[in-house]
Amino acid sequence: MNVKELDPDSSPQAAFGARLRRIRCELGLTQDELGDRMGYSSTHLSSVETGRKMPTLRLSRRADEALGTADAFEREWREMRHGLLLEGFPEFLEYEARAAEIRLYEVGVMPGLLQTPEYAAVLADSAVKRGAITSDQADERVALVAERQASLIRTPPPVIFAVLDEGCVLRPVGGPEVVEAQLTRLLEFADQPNTVLQIAPFTMGERRPFNLPITVLTMPNRSLMSYAESAQRGDLERESTSVVPQLTAYHQLQAEALSQADTVALIEKVRKGTS
User: Fold this and answer.
1) 89-114+146-272 is classed in which CATH architecture?
2) Fewest CB within a 10 Å sphere: which of 76, 81, 173, 252?
């Protein structure tokens, strides 16, 4: 792409690149010189400036450091990243980071809040191989998992109730080492004073109240909201008339699921099979 033909209004990605090029030129820096400061090749920076390559969080932070722009590029990256997420998810993340109680139910794969970096990377790499996302977007997915988990380390910590469909534990993701580390992570989670971990066994059958993953948040002011998503969009629900029945169904799910002690015993059994 010819630099002169770049249209900053064509996409957030193009706007990011145009801004990077403009500030670099205002400071009298060549792409080679800025690349040396940031730890990137001039070819890589050229691809970002012309909108051919998606910027990453790391690159955005390096740009802010090298160009003295405070956190301007990082904030632009976050806004752009949110635009790539399912509708409703960015807003949900803001509430999740402040929730007093988090109740989640997941089907098929480990929920992001419980994933190890290696497990998250395997899922992201698989999406790259299918052509669903780029390698840069895969890096951002893994970074987002880490950010969400870091947001839970606060005082006081949120109380987290996690119910996992049995398939989450039995489904092999990655090699034996990835699986064993992920199962160990679950056991560590269950051992925390502010967490409850349960498995919803296959034998629940039709008594399972949810067919799709769902999260119910209780905020510090005791207000409720829920988040669920389909393949195309996420739905953040704040109307109590809709959320309260979901909370009731979640309690029913917990009553039917294995106890935490039985859950830990099952995970230990599965983990021994990976050794």
Assistant:
1) 2-Layer Sandwich (3.30)
2) 252
